[in-house]
Design goal:
about 55% helix; DUF5682; elongated; 35 helices; three-stranded antiparallel β-sheet
């Protein structure tokens, strides 16, 4: 920007620079204007009680985007963020002041007032849209700050949207009234809100621009007219007069602006201060320029403000959290593009942009040549010329990206939008920045383990046999215990128990969770141990304690293991609910396996597991009587989980036998216990499978479990299936048996030559009514099968051919149980008189 003429000042030496938050054009204009003015003091819109932190903006290790975090000392969950990027005008003003040794401070309401007002009333005055970011609910009321307990990030899969379209969605409903003056005022409310959060956008729209940055570039960057900030001030004065003071935001703005004027008055009274520069949102300029109202009037406005004890710190932030889509009222649509606009050489903005996009596509192994880049640049520049624009904007770049770089593939264009237009740049703060001790320990541990906190989701597979990977796993599990969900566990198949998968995604809001967790201890280890111990003491159900025990071993919380085991023994001794006992067993089985892999001594768990299994075996036969379909399905799942646990415990016992091979007595005892436990479990399942008063889903599932365990051979399984399909049960009851038997796997039907023909024969023999009644259950049974399994079943049926009796049907017809048939035979004998049963006469 060329040198501008003098700006009309509201009083001696006061220069009010109205800016667009996070606007690269505004940022460059502010830096140039500060060079021209050379002020003696600078005031910046921001929480006044964070002024002491401004000096660290140029410290080593400070790299935007970053945010000021303010939270209540007695309730860290009450918190708010004030984010800044390198292209934020406020950030440029701060760095200019520190580097030029000019006194600088924030002049907006303190965070102590903001948080107190929000806690009292979410819509209370004192909560600003311009800088404060709501981080709990994306798309919520931008005027209401939100507690940062839930993720507020924009959807990483946001489709490619031109800047022009997105801007229209945000505010192009405009300030005009509908032709019907009595129509709804929704559009007017939108205009009022946009005027406060992004008044530059309304000025751009009034000038015929759909992109505020393009308007600013044309007006500020590429023209030599002087007095741009004066022009903005005059435009804002007219805009405020048009919007009026009748919106819900008016009282809040009045209080904020009264505080800003009070800070301005104090600054002007300081010795040696002759010129003061005020950097604030354009909306507030009219309230700070010209003759200020009496200080007593502002004092009355500010009287009675409540405060809360607050702590503040710099924290890393991300570009995606600067986006409007994240729920941030002052957000921008394309932070990655704005970063490029501000940092790139003005002569190579377009070419550099396409080069970066091409690099991202090449990183995905996509063929993008230099010719693609050249043609993209030409197309974007041609589109700009056709539209009468001096430079290509994001709308032209998006269209050229889709047409040339992505060759019309919108999926690839979405990738460019997500990774380039939005961007996932993560800032950093100096290591010596004030943080809670737990955060300092976490940062040190992450650094020593060579983990990277990245906002981009990344899958990692840890080998627990390697000390460093094991330490990473322990850290992630400890953080999970503390509610700091940096990583989400992933299922890893076919790699043994020594492999562990994680999906890592670092969200800036997790710093709040760290602060909340600091009440448990000053280190991650101490905090995890303390929280586990507290949860063990508060647990009321056996399943809760066993799950906690599993977490204890995964997190290597040795200090908490004793209290957890004590709670487990105490609860197990008094808990007689079979369902709760079965729910507790799987976690113990997994715990023993993890203990074996991680080298943890879990010998004591064996006795607990055997005790629980014995009580399950004792109570299960009575628990399965008279169950409806829903209850039967629930207990069927429990039985399946316990069955897997019994096999797992047997495997652990076999490992123990191998490890104690030199001690024959210990090995024999361990092996004997495992064999006895497993046989006891199988005997209980067999007794239930032989009963006729148990729900068919449950009996069918137990039959399948015993077949897979080689307790029943194929012939016995076929015999039981034949009995289930031939006895006097309804088709629906028979379908339930099949559902339980097949479960979620149909491979048995492909490989067994008897079972499939039997089911096929039964199904083909149903009349229309019975078939319709059984169809929903059959669909639920066969529907989840994978396509290859369903195809294999169809091929097996096709091989039998029309009119050909399937293999196994004769065997099914020959099945005869004299005991079950006894009553029917006796009745038939009475009907036929003295005719001997089986006579051919």
């Amino acid at each position: 920007m060329t040198d501008a003429g003098p700006i009309s000042a509201p009083g001696p030496g006061t220069y009010v620079l109205g800016i667009r938050h996070h606007g690269p054009g505004s940022a460059r204009a502010v830096a140039a204007e500060l060079d021209r003015i050379a002020p003696d003091a600078i005031l910046i819109e921001g929480p006044a009680d964070a002024s002491d932190l401004i000096g660290s903006v140029v410290a080593e290790g400070m790299s935007p985007p970053v945010a000021l975090l303010g939270y209540a000392a007695d309730d860290p969950s009450s918190a708010a963020f004030w984010p800044f990027a390198v292209f934020s005008p406020e950030w440029q003003a701060m760095t200019w002041a520190v580097r030029n040794h000019v006194p600088v401070e924030f002049c907006d309401l303190p965070a102590a007032v903001t948080l107190a007002a929000r806690d009292e009333d979410a819509g209370a005055t004192g909560v600003g849209d311009d800088v404060l970011i709501p981080v709990a609910e994306a798309g919520g009321d931008a005027g209401t700050p939100l507690i940062p307990e839930a993720e507020a990030g924009g959807d990483a899969g946001t489709p490619l949207i031109p800047e022009a379209e997105a801007t229209k969605e945000r505010g192009s409903r405009g300030v005009r009234r509908d032709e019907n003056p009595d129509a709804t005022t929704e559009d007017e409310t939108t205009a009022e809100h946009l005027a406060r959060t992004d008044p530059i956008a309304l000025l751009a729209e009034a000038a015929g621009y759909d992109d505020p940055e393009r308007w600013w570039d044309d007006v500020v960057e590429t023209r030599s007219e002087q007095g741009i900030f004066e022009a903005i001030a005059e435009a804002m004065t007219v805009l405020r007069d048009e919007v009026g003071d009748h919106s819900p935001d008016a009282a809040r703005d009045e209080r904020r602006e009264a505080y800003m004027r009070q800070v301005l008055r104090k600054t002007l009274k300081r010795t040696g201060v002759h010129k003061v520069a005020v950097i604030c949102g354009a909306w507030h300029v009219p309230a700070l320029r010209g003759k200020l109202p009496p200080a007593t009037a502002d004092s009355r406005i500010l009287k009675g403000m409540k405060k809360t004890r607050t702590r503040l710190a710099w924290v890393p932030w991300t570009h995606s959290r600067l986006s409007f889509a994240s729920g941030y009222a002052a957000g921008v649509v394309s932070p990655g593009w704005y970063h490029h606009l501000f940092t790139a050489d003005p002569d190579t903005v377009v070419a550099g942009w396409f080069t970066g996009a091409a690099q991202r596509l090449r990183a995905q192994d996509l063929p993008v040549s230099s010719a693609h880049i050249i043609e993209s640049v030409r197309l974007a520049q041609t589109l700009a010329t056709m539209r009468g624009r001096q430079l290509a904007g994001l709308a032209e770049l998006d269209e050229a990206t889709l047409a040339v770089l992505c060759e019309g593939d919108r999926t690839l264009a979405d990738l460019v939008h997500r990774e380039v237009v939005m961007g996932e740049r993560l800032g950093s703060v100096p290591e010596d920045s004030p943080v809670v001790p737990l955060q300092a320990d976490l940062t040190s541990t992450v650094k020593s383990l060579r983990l990277k906190q990245s906002p981009a989701a990344k899958e990692v597979v840890l080998d627990l046999r390697k000390p460093n990977d094991l330490a990473k796993s322990i850290l992630l599990h400890r953080l999970s215990v503390l509610g700091i969900d940096w990583g989400q566990p992933l299922e890893i198949t076919g790699t043994g128990t020594f492999k562990e998968g994680w999906l890592l995604t670092w969200r800036p809001e997790l710093v709040i969770e760290v602060v909340l967790a600091s009440v448990w201890g000053t280190t991650v280890s101490a905090a995890a141990n303390a929280k586990i111990g507290d949860r063990a003491a508060a647990a009321t159900q056996l399943s809760q304690i066993t799950e906690l025990l599993e977490q204890t071993l995964l997190a290597d919380a040795a200090d908490a293991l004793g209290p957890v085991l004590a709670a487990l023994h105490a609860r197990a001794a008094v808990d007689h609910d079979v369902d709760q006992l079965m729910a507790a067993l799987p976690a113990i089985g997994r715990t023993q396996r993890y203990g074996d892999v991680r080298g943890t001594d879990v010998t004591a768990l064996g006795a607990v597991a055997r005790s629980l299994l014995l009580r399950v075996c004792t109570g299960l036969p009575a628990a399965v009587t008279g169950l409806n379909d829903e209850a039967a399905q629930s207990i069927t799942e429990r039985i399946g989980a316990v069955h897997e646990t019994v096999a797992l415990l047997a495997a652990v016992n076999n490992t123990a036998v191998n490890n104690t091979a030199g001690d024959n007595t210990a090995g024999d005892n361990t092996a004997g216990q495992g064999s006895t436990d497993r046989q006891r479990w199988y005997d209980v399942l067999r007794s239930i499978a032989d009963r006729t008063d148990v729900n068919g889903v449950l009996v069918g599932r137990i039959t399948r479990l015993l077949t897979d365990a080689d307790v029943f051979d194929s012939a016995e399984a076929a015999r039981r299936l034949g009995l289930a399909l031939s006895r006097g049960a309804t088709p629906v009851e028979k379908a339930r048996w099949i559902e339980g038997f097949l479960g979620d796997s149909g491979l048995l039907l492909i490989h067994d030559p008897v079972l499939l023909p039997m089911i096929d024969s039964w199904l083909a023999g149903l009349d229309e009514t019975a078939f319709v009644d059984a169809l929903p259950l059959l669909r639920r049974t066969f529907g989840p099968f994978d396509a290859p399994v369903r195809r294999g079943i169809a091929e097996q049926l096709a091989r039998s051919g029309p009119g050909e009796q399937p293999v196994g049907v004769a065997a099914a017809h020959s099945l005869f149980d004299p005991e079950l048939a006894g009553p029917a035979v006796a009745a038939l004998a009475r009907i036929l008189g003295d005719t001997p049963v089986g006579s051919t006469r």
